[in-house]
Design brief:
232 residues, Rossmann fold, 4-stranded parallel beta sheet, 44% helix, 16% strand
C-alpha cells in the first residue's frame, strides 16, 4: 500500500505532466483545496489560479473561507458568477442537474484558461465519487477537465491524511455540497428556495451545530446536524 507521502508525490508528478500553468476549480472544500495545494507545490504558486464560482447554489459564508485557503497557499484567487440556476435543464432538478451545473462551470473556467496561455483546468473529484451517479464527471470529461486525485484513485480518507500532513486549515472541514443537493429530485430549483435553505442552515450553524443539512421535501423540511466539538 502506498503511503500518503507517496500518493502526494504521485499526484504532484501527474499535475506537472499536464503543463506548467493551472486553473483550479476551488469551492473551499477539502478536495479542491488539496488539488490547489498540490498544484501550488508542483508548479509554484505564481503559476496557479484558484477560481470560485458564485451562484445561488453556493452556500453563504464559504467564499471568505475559499479566499483564505488560496491566500495561505500564495495562489491567485478569482471569483466568477455562474448562472446554472437560470438554465431550465438545471432548474427542473432531475437526475442530470449536476451535469448542467458543471457544464456551466467548466465552460467559464475553460474561457479563463484559454486567456491564460492555455492553462489546464483541474477539479477536485476523488475516487469515492465513482460510487455514486455523478453526471458532473461526464461534463468534466467532455470539457477536458483533469481530476488528479481521481486519476490517482485517491479517496476521502487519504485526501484528509495528505491535507493534515500539509497543515491545510481545511483538513478536517466537513463536506458541504451545493444547496441544490438539499432539494428532493423533481422539485423545481429557484433562487428563492435556495436562499431559504441557506438562511436556515446558517441560523442552525450559529447555534453551534456543524455540519448542517436542511433538506427540502415539498411541505416538509428535514434537518440533519450534529454539535461542533466546541459546543459538544
Amino acid at each position: 500500500m502506498r503511503s500518503a507521502a507517496d500518493v502526494r508525490d504521485a499526484v504532484e508528478r501527474r499535475i506537472r505532466s499536464y503543463g506548467d500553468r493551472a486553473i483550479v476549480a476551488h469551492s473551499g472544500g477539502v478536495d479542491s483545496a488539496l488539488v490547489l495545494a498540490l498544484a501550488a507545490r508542483a508548479l509554484g504558486p505564481s503559476s496557479v489560479t484558484a477560481v470560485t464560482a458564485l451562484s445561488p447554489s453556493y452556500p453563504g459564508g464559504e467564499l471568505e473561507f475559499a479566499r483564505s485557503v488560496a491566500a495561505d497557499l500564495g495562489a491567485a484567487h478569482r471569483v466568477v458568477r455562474t448562472r446554472e440556476v437560470e438554465r431550465e435543464a438545471y432548474a427542473r432538478n432531475d437526475e442530470m442537474r449536476c451535469y448542467h451545473c458543471k457544464a456551466e462551470l467548466y465552460a467559464t473556467l475553460g474561457a479563463i484558461a484559454a486567456s491564460a496561455d492555455g492553462a489546464v483546468v483541474m477539479a477536485g473529484a476523488i475516487a469515492d465519487d465513482l460510487d455514486d451517479l455523478r453526471p458532473g464527471l461526464w461534463a468534466g470529461e467532455r470539457a477536458g477537465i483533469r481530476n488528479p486525485l481521481l486519476e490517482e484513485r485517491v479517496g476521502k480518507a487519504l485526501v484528509r491524511e495528505i491535507a493534515r500532513g500539509l497543515d491545510l486549515r481545511v483538513a478536517e472541514k466537513p463536506a458541504l455540497a451545493c444547496l441544490s443537493s438539499r432539494v428532493r429530485t423533481g422539485i423545481r430549483i429557484t433562487p428563492e428556495l435556495l436562499d431559504r435553505i441557506d438562511a436556515a442552515e446558517q441560523e442552525i450553524r450559529a447555534l453551534g451545530f456543524d455540519p448542517v443539512r436542511v433538506r427540502h421535501d415539498g411541505d416538509v423540511a428535514r434537518v440533519g446536524c450534529r454539535p461542533t466539538r466546541s459546543s459538544a
